[in-house]
Amino acid sequence: MSSIVQQPVSIFNEFDYITEREQEVKAHTGSVAFDGLSEPILLAQDMSGGCGGKIWKCANVMIDYFIWKNVQSNGTLFKNQKIVEIGSGTGLVGLAVAKICPEIKQMVITDQLPMMDLMQENIKLNHLEHSVTADILNWGEEIPNLSQVLGADVILASDCIYLEVAFLPLLETFFALTNKESSVIYLTYKKRRNADKLFFQAAKKKFIFKDVTEDPKMNNYKRDKLHLFSVMRKPLNQQQLQDLQKAKSNTTTTQA
Ligand SMILES: C[S@@+](CC[C@H](N)C(=O)[O-])C[C@H]1O[C@@H](n2cnc3c(N)ncnc32)[C@H](O)[C@@H]1O
């Protein structure tokens, strides 16, 4: 990895800054093969809309794990489940999961507006229009009640912890998306800066993090400071439950 500090490539997003940027890629369309995936993923990469326009190592970690996990689950991983990916960039992770697990209920890949065309192009390139849709999801922004991203069983976030100013908005989005008690977030993370611990300190107040230690490739990627976690919301305490019930009954009274 290059240790050269570079300026943001994106004119759209001031958050879009990774100090230890890996080599940038020229816009092109190619194919990405994974051991255990019957056909390669066709992928357009283009960094003109932001850093998400290329493949990050975190994405490979997540995809390799799900290929392995699907074999362990006799091909039933995520069967009938709704999956939402955030900060999808090219959409590689979501597209790969849709190929690994053809019986998912729905896959929504999301990012900011400048990544929309790239995500849509990559859905089409892989003929996944029947199971994958692209949507805009800006972290920290309120999610409309009828949004297709709500009610997800699984949330995927690959390499989304990289800028301090986005830590709290990202956590708000995690909270909003895990509105089902059973929702689980899979998160891959590359440790780049000490400030990242601020994200984990804040996150651990509301979420429980587990290292995915069953992944047979874990020792390989840990050497590169890459981590894979499964994350769930902490159960609400008595006071929080009461507050929630109060808020619900206030809404009902106001509507009546
Ligand atoms: C390092 S890239 C990772 C891309 C992809 N998930 C991967 O692993 O290859 C981080 C992604 O987060 C997105 N992102 C950054 N800030 C965001 C925000 N405030 N709201 C939504 N997406 C954001 C970027 O556009 C980018 O696609």
Automatic annotation (TrEMBL):
Cellular component, GO, one term: cytosol
Primary residence: cytoplasm
Cross-referenced InterPro entries: EFM6, Methyltransf_16, SAM-dependent_MTases_sf
EC nos: 2.1.1.-
Gene3D superfamilies membership: Vaccinia Virus protein VP39
Binding site for S-adenosyl-L-methionine: 56, 87-89, 111, 139, 158
The protein's enzyme class: transferase
Keywords, ordered alphabetically: Cytoplasm, Methyltransferase, S-adenosyl-L-methionine, Transferase
UniProt-annotated location(s): Cytoplasm
Gene Ontology terms for molecular function: protein-lysine N-methyltransferase activity
GO terms of biological process kind: methylation
Function: S-adenosyl-L-methionine-dependent protein-lysine N-methyltransferase that methylates elongation factor 1-alpha.
Matches recorded under PANTHER family: HEPATOCELLULAR CARCINOMA-ASSOCIATED ANTIGEN, PROTEIN-LYSINE N-METHYLTRANSFERASE EFM6
Similarity comment text for this entry: Belongs to the class I-like SAM-binding methyltransferase superfamily. METTL21 family. EFM6 subfamily.
Protein name: Protein-lysine N-methyltransferase EFM6
Organism per entry: Mucor plumbeus
Encoding gene (name): EFM6
